[in-house]
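Lab manual, section 2.4: Encoding a predicted structure.

Procedure: take the sequence of the chain (302 residues), apply the prediction step described in section 2.3, and record the output as structure tokens. A sample record is shown.
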Amino acid sequence: MTKLNYEFHLGIAPISWINDDIPGLGDDTDIKDVLKEMNELGYIATEKGRTFPDEPTELKDLLKKYDIVLASQFVSVMFSRKNLYKQEMEKFKENALFLKDMGCNYVIVCEMGGSTLQDNMETPKKLTEEEWDLLVSNFNKAGKFCEENGLELVIHPHAGTVVEQKEDVDYIMEKTDSRYVNLLFDTGHAFYGNYDPYEQLMNYIDRIKYVHYKDVRSSVLKETRKAGKSFKEEVVTGIFTVPGDGDIDFKPIIKKLMETNYYGWVIVEAEQDPARANPYEYAKKAINYLNQIEQVLLQEIN
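Recorded output:
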């Protein structure tokens, strides 16, 4: 009989309440109210958003008040830029040490050079061979720095960036050093990049150290792509939602993570317009759905 490890460390990102990629979405929301709602719903962790305090002691005190811990932070870099990578590496190290001071074990890194989010392009730039080599080299260096400081680096493939499509993810995972570089498995961004989420999970199960549960409304995604909308416009239109509210089949994903005794964070995300999708209600829907899947799997295995 297969033993299932179902005690995941479940958190939720603040992006449902206050969007980091699209200033203006949720700007009037007090972060204290966000943390209070997270705690009420049963989530135990979050990630640092743009309206969180930057001073470590202040942030620790705030999180402690609501019994929430910091899982990590999304760290944007431009490691593929020849004229910027040295200063980008220094900024990365500062962020990594901040997370270490906060008691985190993981550093989420995402390449923004040539992205639609950073450079206001319609589609991500196609990197040259030299730029790919530079990106791989700097991911390895950043990962080694993390390892030396008791941290783990996880690359976040992300819509609108140069590591978006299936072939991008496969390339970066093949070329980077598995001793220092691991993968953040984001179900929603995998789907967006034409990578079956379960396939990505199976391909890199040994290097997945951090998980984002995000669902996709495939019909909305199809419509926005047909209309030629940008990634930010797609988000506002509603391509993403919480687990159980879209078209991704989470049951086999959750079962595989259980079977492999995955021990890292599972962070719920739903990049939506909070004015159109009440963050509390969707966060509640997500945790209820995940608890339901857990119970179904336990009944099946027993």
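Check your result against the sample. The beta strands are 9-12, 45-48, 69-77, 106-111, 152-155, 181-186, 208-213, 215-216, 240-241, 265-268.
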